[in-house]
Amino acid sequence: MNWKKWTITIFITLFLAVNFFLTYKKDSKIIKTNYIDEWTAVKEQDLILAKKKAGVITPSEEQYVYFDDKNGQFQEFLVKKGEKVQEGTPLFAYSSTDIESSKANLEAEITRLESELGSIEENITQLESLKTDLSAGLENEEEVASNDLMLIEAEIYDKELQMGRIESEIEKYNTLIDSNGKSLDNLMIKSNVSGVVKEISRNLKNPLITISSDQQQVEGILEEEEVLEITEGMKVFVTSPALKKKKESTITEISSNPIEQPKVNRKSQYRFSVQLNQDSEEEIVNGAHVDLKIIKQEVNNVLTVPYKSIKNKEAKSYIYVLQQNGTIEKRSIQTGMHVNQVQEVKEGAEKGELIVFQPSTLKNNAPFFTPLNTKEIETNLIGKMEKNEILRYIGRGFLSN
After folding, report:
1. Count of domains observed in the chain
2. Which CATH number is 232's domain given?
3. pLDDT digits over 50-84, tens only?
4. Do residues 388 and 307 share a domain?
5. Residue burial 230-243, b: 16+ Cβ < 10 Å; e: rest
6. Can you give the residue range of the structural domain that contains 253?
7. How far apart are CA 260 and CA 281, in angstroms?
8. For 99-157, what is each residue's pLDDT tens digit?
9. Cβ atoms within 10 Å of 54's Cβ, excluding its own
10. Do 387 and 337 touch, CB atoms closer than 8 A?
11. Is the entire prediction scored with pTM above 0.70?
């Protein structure tokens, strides 16, 4: 009986060895059934490639107000440090003593000229009356009256010329007075921005007044390699515990010069700024620290698969699609953006298709089977099956691999 046992044992061993050899032999024509325990679906979603940076809130600009002694002597400050000002708020004034004195002198000269003008007008009136009288007596003393009449007319003409010169002088002085009035307006220096008075130079050294504007920005620092991939105009989301909701903005400026003097053995850093849109309902103080999410690239409603589900070979990318006929299709795809563990698929896949989550050694058009989900087995159906049918399915399961 021992020879029978040995014969059976040798036969089973040879059978298994030949099957293993044929199954795993390279370029074997035997179709091996693949066991697939993890799969996923092709999804449609948005992909965002972003860079996280830190930032600090600062005024977007500072107005520097200067004192110029050519415009006159300093008179007084009209604001205090820390005071809130609006556009057009008076900041300081030059002394108006010299201008007011000059204006008073001009007004006195105009008064004198107007008095002189009145006297000349009265004199002309008298000459006109005398001229009328001489004209009436011209018939009796024709020769004498004629000479006197010519002298009176000449004098009237001369007086009228004097009046014209005086009126020109009065007009000139009025123009100078108007100019002094404008100069008085210019003696009061006003703010060009709305904001807060940051500094006041009491010793009259320039800048005399510094104003931090209400408009705010976020300042951050880019490393040398980041300047190559981040550009002005990129979308930015600003978040902070001090803000109720994130603010959307853009990078408005990236400095072309490094923050510190460049050195050979040290990487350079560059300052960038993000304009912060004003929100009357929500304020954040200057100096507050915020988080920035810079959007480098963004695509919407694109097909995606897990990066692990892709096999790359000879500069080509493939996914393994589970077909309804129970086979696996090796399919070439064109990839797009890669974000973390998600890969965009531009061509070669459709939404909802099932793919192998992490393929290893799979063959194209090979059959596959998945784990049995005992929770979904209906026991009442098993009870209705015949023994031969049950054994046939069990045997097919063992022989599938």
Report:
1. 5
2. 2.40.30.170
3. 999 999 999 888 889 998 877 677 888 999 998 99
4. yes
5. beeebbbbbebeeb
6. 215-299
7. 38
8. 555 666 667 777 887 888 888 888 888 777 777 776 665 555 555 556 767 777 777 77
9. 11
10. no
11. no
